[in-house]
Amino acid sequence: MSAKRFVGPSAFDQPLTIEGRQAQLALSVDTVVIHKNGIEFRSPGPFRVWTEMTVSLQSPGNGRKLHCAGIIVACSGNKHTGYNVSMIFTSLSKQAQAQLNTMAHSDLGAG
After folding, report:
1. What structural domains does the chain harbor?
2. Is 96 buried (19+), middle (13-18) or exposed (0-12) by CB count in 10 A?
3. Measuring CA to CA, how many Å separate 1 from each of 7, 13, 65, 78, 88?
4. Checking DSSP bridges between strand 32-35 and strand 38-43, what pairing results, if any?
5. Pairwise CA distance, residues 53 & 87, whole Å
């Protein structure tokens, strides 16, 4: 994933939710970067690479929720400073991809 620009505080009405088989994490919007093919986020705990996860995003424009499945492709950091996690989305519908592209190319994403 490319350039880092974090989502502004008014970008989402609700926190970003990351869910896996054994974890659920509600993230504040200032810890997330949206890309056209995935997200990067800061986490207080580590995630194993190749873990399948789902993400729920709520669009500020139309208020619709976007549910994306993906795979963790990188996780670096430590328990003292937190972890930087990169996730690539898989199997997006054309509608979901269009909505994600809009978010990524707005001030919500990294361009």
Report:
1. 16-105 (2.40.10.220)
2. middle
3. 15, 25, 23, 20, 9
4. antiparallel
5. 9
Query: Among 47, 29, 20, which residue's Cα sits nearest to residue 103?
Result: 29
pLDDT (tens place) for every residue of the chain, 111 residues total: 433 333 444 444 456 666 666 666 777 767 788 888 898 988 888 989 998 988 887 666 666 778 888 999 999 999 999 999 999 999 888 988 888 887 777 655 554
* Residues facing 82 on adjacent strands: 78
Measured CA to CA, the distance from residue 29 to residue 31 in angstroms comes to: 5
Give all strands of the β-sheet with 16-19 in edge-to-edge order. 24-27, 16-19, 52-58, 65-78, 82-90, 38-43, 32-35
Residue 100 CB contacts under 8 Å (≥ 6 apart), including other chains: 34, 36, 37, 57, 66, 68, 89, 92
- Residue 105 to residue 53: CA distance in whole angstroms: 23
